[in-house]
Amino acid sequence: MVFPFSSSEDFRIELTEEHELFRKSIREFVESKVMPRWREIEETNRIPEDILKEAADLGIFGVGIPEEYGGQGGGHLMTALLTEEIARAVPALGVTIGVNHLFAVPILLFGTEEQKRKYVTPIAQGKARGAHANTEPTGGSDVAGIRTTARKVNDHYVINGRKVFISGARDADYLVVSARTNPPREDKRWWGISVFIVEKDMPGLKIGQQFKVLGMRGEQPYEVILEDVKVPAENLVGKEDEGFKVIVSTYDYTRIGIAAQAVGIAQASFEKALNYALQREVFGQPLIQFQMIIDKLANMYMKLEAARLLTYWAATLADKGKREFIVAASLAKAFATEAAEWIARQAIQIHGGYGVDPETGVERYLRDAIITTIYEGTNEIQRLTIVRQLVRQAFGLKF
Questions:
Q1: Where exactly does CATH 2.40.110.10 map onto the chain?
Q2: Does 245-395 carry CATH code 1.10.1660.10?
Q3: What cofactors are annotated for this protein (predicted)?
Q4: Is 373 helix (H, G, I), strand (E, B) or coil?
Q5: What is the pLDDT along the chain (399 residues), one digit of tens a residue?
Q6: pTM of this prediction?
Q7: What letter would DSSP give residue 184?
Q8: Of 383, 364, 335, 366, whose CA–CA distance to 43 is shortest?
Q9: Is 41 within 8 Å of 217 (Cβ atoms)?
Q10: Would you tell me which of 7, 13, 141, 225 could form a disulfide with 206, CB atoms 3.0–4.6 Å apart?
Q11: How far apart are CA 302 and CA 287, in angstroms?
Q12: Is the preceding peptide bond at 4 cis, omega within 30 degrees of 0?
């Protein structure tokens, strides 16, 4: 036994030639179409439609979604490779793609066959966009604490509430929305939550203010307001009152994508720092010849590769259907995002004054890295998940 896993084979990462060919194809798209336009995206706070169209034409929105629902297949490891390569150029584009997965995953896991074909297929084909509306003004990580309500009336539900920090909401055709259909039970605070598919044109659904958050310019989040929104009963995802499981199970998978975003950010930051250290001369010699710079670069690279390995490992376990992937995903998310923040900070320090000049494109990675430590469960929540899963897997105990 390799505590808390059952075998040392659980630590195997299975990358194939297909994975590498896929990574190279995404790198080519990113280098030619996305990287040259990072400044435009930062300034306009929008991902250009022509980039999104080309991404759709390449099948990027369908990576990780089964072929029977219009996707490209590929699993979680392929999705992580995709996200890493895109985040290396423009992390916000990784968010644009990621929120479609946040919409699709709960339906793929708990939805009906009709829901999968009606809603997931156009998402996978790039013909529609999705979003995931769970976070509320009173809290995000506390999924059981949501206050949006859904009242059953004959053959539909009436939803009222307000969601905040919802990425992709403005352009979404469909949203997954959590709401409380019944009060919590005394011994089960999570009980009474349900999940619904809400279409953008349903009366009463409004997109409110955009939140000007620190980073992720190009895909910053919005407020979603629901006022007497009538949703057909067939749009319920999973069982009524058991939506808490739908939401948290979704995050178990999608937080691997956040780790991959962080790896892409860390990779870009390290590359920029290394190149600058080779080119910049101070006191008559290249910056890279100073021991303090050597130490920084070595530590940056160690954290980068550790973050990458943890992310690929979590994705491999998820693809194998191993229950242990949950703790691995939290390990990867917490470590990779904090590593990305630290690496981006060191990259700025190595660049000196140029590091804080937006024109160089260095400081944006720190802003984006900070965001990754917060969404899809703060890293404090990841640490809680790690210990809970460890105790549950090793000793069969819950706390």
A1: 132-241
A2: no
A3: FAD
A4: coil
A5: 577 777 888 899 989 999 999 999 999 999 999 999 999 999 999 999 999 999 999 999 999 999 999 999 999 999 999 999 999 999 999 999 999 999 999 999 999 999 999 999 999 999 999 999 999 998 778 899 999 999 999 999 999 999 999 999 999 999 999 999 999 998 899 999 999 999 999 999 999 999 999 999 999 999 999 999 999 999 999 999 999 999 999 999 999 999 999 999 999 999 999 999 999 989 999 999 999 999 999 999 999 999 999 999 999 999 999 988 999 999 999 999 999 999 999 999 999 999 999 999 999 999 999 999 999 999 999 999 999 988 887 787 777
A6: 0.95
A7: P
A8: 364
A9: yes
A10: 225
A11: 20
A12: yes
How does DSSP assign 246-290, residue by residue?
Answer: HHHHHHHHHHHHHHHHHHHHHHHHHHHHHHHHHH-EETTEEGGGS
Tell me whether residue 242 is one of the annotated catalytic residues: no
Angle (deg, nearest 10), helices 243-279 and 363-372: 160
Pairing of strands 156-166, 222-232: antiparallel
CB neighbours of residue 385 within 10 Å: 22
Pick the CATH number of 132-241 from 3.90.700.10, 2.40.110.10, 3.20.20.370, 2.60.40.2470: 2.40.110.10
CB 123 within 8 A of CB 100: yes
Q: For residues 286 and 124, what is the distance between their CA atoms, to the nearest angstrom? A: 48
Residue type, 254: T
Q: Among residues 43, 281, 376, 380, which one is catalytic?
A: 376
The answer to whether the beta carbons of residues 84 and 263 sit under 8 Å apart is: yes
Q: Where in the chain is the domain with CATH 1.10.540.10?
A: 8-128
Q: Are 262 and 372 in contact (CB under 8 A)?
A: yes
Residue 160 CB partners (closer than 8 Å, separation 6+)? 148, 149, 151, 226, 227, 228, 229
